[in-house]
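Title: Comparing notes on inverse folding

I've been comparing how different people in this forum approach sequence design from structure. To keep things fair, I'm posting one structure and asking everyone to reply with a full sequence. Here's the target:
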């Protein structure tokens, strides 16, 4: 099911994750802003929830790929 993730090169996934985590740099990265709103309980607007999902997804894919590689049987 997630074979496409296994085939995706690490460099592209890491670059995308880094880019989405810090974009836009000023005044505050969206991911930081949305996580702060989530911690405060103020993440209620649909656009903010979508923005959090958009900026966090590449990081979640990195974690998922790492988890899949760690549990894969060794030849």
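Reply #1:
Here's my take.
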């Amino acid at each position: 099911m997630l074979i496409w993730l296994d085939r995706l090169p690490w460099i592209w996934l890491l670059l995308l994750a880094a880019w989405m985590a810090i974009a836009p740099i000023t005044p505050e990265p969206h991911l930081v802003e949305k996580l702060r709103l989530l911690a405060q309980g103020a993440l209620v607007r649909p656009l903010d929830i979508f923005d959090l999902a958009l900026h966090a997804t590449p990081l979640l894919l990195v974690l998922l790929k790492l988890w899949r590689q760690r549990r894969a049987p060794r030849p």
